[in-house]
């Protein structure tokens, strides 16, 4: 009674090694950094004991987390057994990160500051997709009881505690979308950004490199600091990147560049999607009866259109399928 069970599922473009690197908490410093980044409500985290020596992919330890809550509830804390390990699910390679509450005499409830919560099984399961190579299926399950604090009996009697608890858990379940965003940001941080001098001059482009829509008063230009191309602002997003000095910076990058590995080219990125080459932009428009090649602008004359199925934008705007324009003929490849 009083516990709430929620589950969320999301597909992300990533490798298992990228996922494990994102969730690495081998030390207290790593745990604090992870808590600050991933859990908006987490106010502190400590790695108390190591039960099994970490091997990079597998770890068993005892941790303590403290989290803020919304509305009138007192902050919560918990002592958990954390387990990370490789598993196999339906013949597919998988990795699980799970928590469950435990009682330790050395980590008693701090009633003056927190209410001790109970987790009956919370964690994330990452499974390599069978149907989408290069994708990971992320499942997040949380089953917790926020319990009743000494001064929360009135809220509990009025039924408010249950409502607020479910709201907090649902809010944390929606944070599953952050997995995709953080994977992309980590991927971007592992390769250099272009300088302003290396960007394609905006004056040389009249249409967006991705959606091919013309620029105008309502569609302004922006450069991607990875590929350098000129795009409309709807086809780019601002990403928060931590540099080598630990400073948090903002960079505008187009969505296709966020799913490329640091050493990949556009050719490798597109070859990991399901698609087919349709031809040059002019040929595609001819087929649709829209124009002829002689009327094409100079920045489209050597461009090709590829029909693809791929997650392009951040989680708030997901494209399941569409077309991408390649301005470098060398990037033209045959796709399955």
From TrEMBL:
GO MF annotation terms: zinc ion binding
Top-level lineage group: Eukaryota
Record bears the keyword Iron: no
Coiled coil start-end: none
Annotated InterPro entries: Rab4/Rab5_effector, START-like_dom_sf, Znf_FYVE, Znf_FYVE-rel, Znf_FYVE_PHD, Znf_RING/FYVE/PHD
Sorted UniProt keywords: Metal-binding, Zinc, Zinc-finger
Pfam families with a match to the protein in the record: FYVE (PF01363)
Domain FYVE-type: from-to ranges: 202-262
Listed PANTHER family: FYVE-FINGER-CONTAINING RAB5 EFFECTOR PROTEIN RABENOSYN-5-RELATED (PTHR13510), RABENOSYN-5 (PTHR13510:SF44)
Protein name: FYVE-type domain-containing protein
Organism (species): Aphanomyces stellatus
């Amino acid at each position: 009674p009083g516990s709430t069970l929620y589950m969320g599922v999301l597909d992300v473009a990533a490798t298992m090694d990228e996922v494990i690197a994102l969730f690495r908490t081998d030390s207290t410093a790593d745990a604090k950094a992870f808590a600050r980044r991933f859990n908006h409500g987490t106010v502190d985290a400590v790695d108390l004991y190591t039960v099994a020596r970490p091997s990079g992919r597998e770890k068993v330890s005892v941790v303590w987390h403290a989290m803020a809550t919304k509305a009138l509830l007192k902050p919560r804390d918990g002592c958990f057994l954390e387990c990370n390990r490789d598993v196999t699910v339906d013949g597919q390679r998988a990795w699980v990160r799970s928590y469950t509450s435990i009682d330790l005499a050395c980590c008693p409830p701090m009633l003056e500051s927190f209410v001790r919560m109970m987790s009956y099984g919370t964690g994330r399961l990452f499974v390599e997709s069978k149907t989408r190579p290069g994708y990971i299926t992320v499942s997040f399950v949380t089953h917790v009881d926020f319990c009743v604090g000494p001064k929360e009996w009135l809220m509990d009697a009025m039924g408010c505690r249950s409502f607020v608890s479910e709201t907090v858990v649902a809010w944390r379940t929606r944070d599953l979308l952050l997995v995709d965003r953080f994977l992309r940001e980590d991927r971007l941080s592992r390769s250099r950004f272009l300088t302003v001098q290396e960007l394609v001059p905006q004056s040389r482009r009249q249409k967006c490199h991705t959606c091919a829509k013309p620029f105008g008063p309502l569609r302004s230009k922006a450069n991607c600091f990875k590929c350098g191309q000129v795009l409309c602002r709807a086809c780019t997003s601002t990403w928060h990147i931590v540099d080598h000095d630990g400073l948090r910076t903002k960079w505008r990058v187009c969505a296709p560049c966020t799913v490329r590995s640091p050493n990949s080219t556009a050719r490798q990125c597109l070859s990991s999607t399901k698609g087919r080459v349709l031809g040059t932009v002019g040929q595609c428009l001819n087929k649709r009866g829209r124009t002829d090649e002689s009327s094409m602008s100079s920045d489209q004359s050597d461009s090709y259109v590829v029909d693809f199925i791929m997650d392009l934008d951040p989680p708030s705007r997901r494209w399941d399928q569409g077309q991408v324009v390649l301005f470098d003929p060398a990037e033209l490849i045959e796709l399955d």
